[in-house]
Amino acid sequence: MATPAPTAQNWVLRLFFVSGLSGILFEVLWTRIFTYLLGGTTHSVTAVITAFMLGLGLGSYLLGRVADRSTRPLRIYGLLELGVAFSGLVAFYAFHHIESLYSVLYAWAPQATIKWLVFLIAFVFVSFSATLIGGTLPVLARYVVNRDEGLKAALGQLYSINTLGAAAGSVLMIGLVWVLGYETGYHLALALNVVTGVAALLLSRRENAAPVSSSEAPSASPPPTAEPRETLDGRILLPAFALSGFCALAYEVIWFRLLDFLLLGRLTTFACVLSVYLLGISLGSVAFSRWSPRGLSDLKLFVVFEALLGLLGLLSLPVLSAVSGWGHRPFTIAVGFLLLFAMTLLLGGLFPLAGKLYAGPMRLLGRTVGNIYSANTAGSVLGSFLTGFVLFPTIGTSAALLLIAALNLGIAATLAGVSLRPLNTRWVGTVAALAAVGLGGWFSADWLTRYYEHVSLRPGFRVIAESESSLQPVLVAENGQGDRVLLGGPFQSGETVPARRQTQKLQAHLPMLVHPNPQRVLEIGYGVGELPRTLLLYQPELLQLVELDEHMIPVAEEYFGALNEHASRKPNVRVDVMDGRHFLKMSEEQFDVIMSDSMILASEGSLRLYTEEHFREARRHLRPGGVALVWLPLNAGISKAMVILKTFQKVFPQSLLWLPLGLNTQEAFIVGFRDEASIDWTAWREKYERVARQDLQAFGWDSPGLFFASFRAGPEQLSEIASRVPMINRDMNPVLDFLPQETPAEIDAAVRQLIAYPPGAIFAHLKDGPTPDESLGALRSEVERIHEADQRFFQGVEALERFGARPPSEVLANAATLTEGFRQALELYPRHHASAVWMAQVLGLAAKVQPPMEPEKVRGLLEEALRYSPSDLAVAEALARLALQRGDKEEAHKYIERVRALAPYSRLAATETP
């Protein structure tokens, strides 16, 4: 083949950089799309990587042979880029309308298979586009590589420039999604492919025709060339390089799971891991294609790289775990990415080495590159798929990492034993000694559990149970006091502390009280299970539970049974293990109440439950008179909360905002009505007296007035608030992913604005029976008193804020002044829950004053605190311990029973019962 002009070749390399950039844009965008098909981030990453790599391998294998028969490889390259643009466009619109397949498949396919049938269709679309992308490397290798002596450098340069473009694309993706959204970002990727394809076709007009290769097939071992060079039998190299690809993608999936605990499950997690991965491969490819350590042949270097990968695999988890224990999260992230980068440098260096060791005659270069690339990608396909869907659920993350590291060492040992003669005993001994040290360090501790504890839990908590699925690890942790926390991956799914339990209970009671006769209820997400247990108190005809992770409910019912009472096993409960959005797409059932568990606004899975499309799907499944409930965590950021409010209000214009005071996390709820926003007072009061009062009494919510005073805004006020919000959260424009977190002062100011709305707004939506109910007038008067008490409450909060962070002794010494606002609020309304909680917190400091106060004085202050706030666990525990110290078993028993009601797993209740 004629040598390409330097200028033309430089332009081709630039085009290949852009090709890598657009290719990775597709991969990241397809990952997001797959989250709507599979429902989980790990599943989605695994599926996209598998489909993408399968296509790359198939394309390199088939189109490498086409390149060898072509006289104009640059023209083929241009056509391939245009083909990627066209197939990507078809794939986009297929994905965009794929939801319509659910209703078609639901009519004839078993429910458990529908998601996977849709996934298979999407998988094919990704693989087809990736096949065309995979063919670009061998085709350009046929164009660029023009002499045997520069083969390794040319292959390294091509592979590096394309991978560098991919690394740039993965970083650029974050900004594109934030500014333009997924849809526009996807079309930009398509446009880049069109520009690349057209430019390549224009350059090909000046391309000299290359001689067509003969039809002879290459031998298993490439024939010798004019100049002797080191080669390796393809029957040995190709399987070794395939196994190396298996390890490479397995490492990527494992590292994604590990770093997800540090980066918290956002789009940026995938983009950051991918960019570091690709940057390392790119630099490693170009560096080791042009430079080799003195005294090491290509084959020896290949063996050394595999051995080093195995050793780094053994060291990575212990090092990451140990560093995370220092408590500096940014430094831990940096160390994690440094380890990942070191491994990818070695992975990048393997490709040009393998190409040089395997390369046959120049006339069969396309086939040669296609063979090694397809072998590597075939291993990559298995590595990503088996790690995500088989190794994680069967042997776990730690054992999977150990297995992959051992496989790298096995590849090195096999190649050395078969192809390096005589063996250098010093090198062998060094590697064996390092491997022994690495294995010893690996088995010296449970590094993965330590890592989870360091990066996911508050101080003092230790993991007491782990259960790994292909989706995520499910963890249960406990502290010395017996408080338990349930985590799904890096995110908290529930806990036993009274404040969180109160939120769960209120969240469940609210829609069941608002709906006049809730018989069919859908809850998305199980958590610790207290929410479904509370819903069942109303004895609905059906409680439909939808939980994404098959391990979540068994773990919750084993370790949190005192809270959930094994709700999933009740006869009127039906459980589907699937994504909540998928359930709504597939099912045609109708419900009276639809709600989600209070899921943190961080992960891909939870953010998808706050989009306009999800809210519309929920509305479609409501029966006449039905209500939907959405959690509004103001503490997660006012900007985010207001976007959720606007998005929900657009779908449910008849909504009521419910914001109770006293929850230290500042959480609100929006009740959306399918029809008119109205509450049947007679039905509400009957259910409250029959169910809610007793269940909530221990938490201080023993008055209807507290519930109705917490309705802060109706449809008119919410419409006015929404009009000031410029954004809506949509599937293809997920603005919640990128909004900032405001300061506590800004959040508090926004809460006060919501509280300031006139208290009587709820009564416009309160429907009385045919006979006027005098209790309704008493309720109105109660709500007005509560609203006035709210203002006194905020005066008390401001007084505490002005006092600043002082020692408990100083706070107690000034307690009378500091609690004046709270006392005034309680005089206006003795049940004012927020004031009672804050009073209890101030008086409860008596147990913390050093040196200790007089026991009887401490006891008096604590008893006063408990009268104000019966749900204050710390005060109840302090009173129980004081009673035990003075030997009053009867009083101790009384307080321990209160502790047990608030925190069933309290160590005090379990070990010190008189």
TrEMBL record:
Keyword set includes Transferase: yes
Tree of life domain: Bacteria
Catalysed transformations (reactions): S-adenosyl 3-(methylsulfanyl)propylamine + putrescine = S-methyl-5'-thioadenosine + spermidine + H(+)
Protein's cellular compartments: Cell membrane
UniProt-listed Enzyme Commission number(s): 2.5.1.16
Residues passing through the membrane, by range: 12-33, 45-64, 76-96, 116-140, 161-180, 186-204, 236-256, 268-289, 301-325, 331-351, 372-392, 398-420, 427-445
Residues the record marks as active site: 597 (proton acceptor)
Biological role: Catalyzes the irreversible transfer of a propylamine group from the amino donor S-adenosylmethioninamine (decarboxy-AdoMet) to putrescine (1,4-diaminobutane) to yield spermidine.
InterPro entries per record: MFS_trans_sf, PABS, SAM-dependent_MTases_sf, Spermi_synthase, TPR-like_helical_dom_sf
Pathway where it operates: Amine and polyamine biosynthesis; spermidine biosynthesis; spermidine from putrescine: step 1/1
Coiled coil: none
Record protein name field: Polyamine aminopropyltransferase
